[in-house]
Design a protein that fits this description.
Radius of gyration: 21 Å
Structural class: mainly alpha
Shape: globular
Helix content: over 70%
Distance between the termini: 14 Å
Largest sheet: 2 strands, antiparallel
Number of domains: 1
Number of strands: 2
Length: 493
Amino acid sequence: MNSMNWLSVYPEILLLVMACLVAMVDLFVTDEQRRPTYWLTQLTLVVVGAMHLSYFNEGRIETGMQGMIVSDPMGHLLGFFACVATFVTLVYARPYAGVRDILKGELFTLSLLSLLGIMIMLQANNFLVIYLGLELMSLSLYALVALRRDHAGSTEAAMKYFVLGALASGFLLYGLSMMYGATGSLSIPRVFEVIATGAPNKSVLVFGVVFVVAGLAFKLGAAPFHMWVPDVYQGAPTPMTLLLGAAPKLASFAITIRLLVEGMLGLAVDWQQMLLVLAVVSLVVGNLAAIAQTNLKRMLAYSTIAQMGFMLLGLASGVVGDSRDLTANAYSSALFYVLTYVLTTLGSFGVILLLSRQGHEAEEIKDLAGLAKRSPWYALVMTIFMLSLAGIPPTAGFYAKLSVLQAMVATNVPFYIGLAVVAVLLSLVGAFYYLRVIKVMFFDEASDTAPIGAPGDVRAVLSLNGLAVLVFGLLPGGLMAWCAQAVVKLLAA
């Protein structure tokens, strides 16, 4: 426990060094397309992602930094997907940023620093480390949202995100301080042990859990803590929307697991009730509000709220009875859900970035009109993403929703089975606005018949993105096995 164990943080050390190196190298780059900076950043992401995948395959669980961080399969699996998400985001973002004068070294440096904050949260084993990673990620994202300084919408979005983000961080920090006051420790395993003994003051602990869950709900974008999501998604430059809508969701999921499952499993009866309320409210607000949206980014923002509600149903189904298998099944389903959601989100915003051009933002649903005639391939790829978000087979989103519903039904508790039925009905409501996008692409007349041009790497990555969503729907077993392996080892530890 007192070992530094530098090996466990090699990916984070490399990421920090490369973020500093990218910042310095960019000072001497004269190329307007920032090719040296871009490729150095992408190489960093490939190497760090490969390190996390290698650590995941080894399957070891060990602590480092004197017990402040934990190196385990769940952290490394999420770390690998966070690198993939950031890599793909930067591929999609470069053409868009290049014609809007935001293709600068800051874009790449802040993206790496944001990813570093995510990595710190993924492996946190201590309340202070969670907060350190959260603030590093959040401050980088605040700056990225405001990167387009001459755009009033971006500046407004950054201000809203900053103010509400600070408020949520305060909620989380206050809750963690109460947990510390009740248990006498900042170490997550130690907090778990103290709660398991039944020694601390239960009322103080539950009060602390309320604030912790509120802070986590904000970071996940769950209703009623969702106020920032639509405005920030719409106002931020589209690449920044993707940077804060993809990989950070993995970090939010990870700290939710670290705090509630690893640290406060003894209070599951209390926090599961809160998660169920958040889940149902998110499904209702997200799906109903999305129907009224004409802005595509805003619609996807409300879609995110609903998707996070569905994921929370999986997390809230873990401790029902004494079956460890049911617990592992529920948490692995939620993990699978968040991974497939991130993959689908990457592609959805990738198409928006693809259709945007100099002087025109493809942010309205009507901007997709006639896409099937202009480019049948891109229309097909976007259709796959919309079907996945709606949970329609044979996409990854269908299997993700099915696995969460199966985990709820497996509890054999009438209340959970009833909630599963409600979730299905609300998903049917949500299918309307996804299918509306497909209808616009295939049956509406195009207002713009100009050919769609895109760099080869964007076309290739977008195609692979769509293929991945389809393959994980048809053959979900491999990824589901990875999720189950990570969760089983987490619970065993």
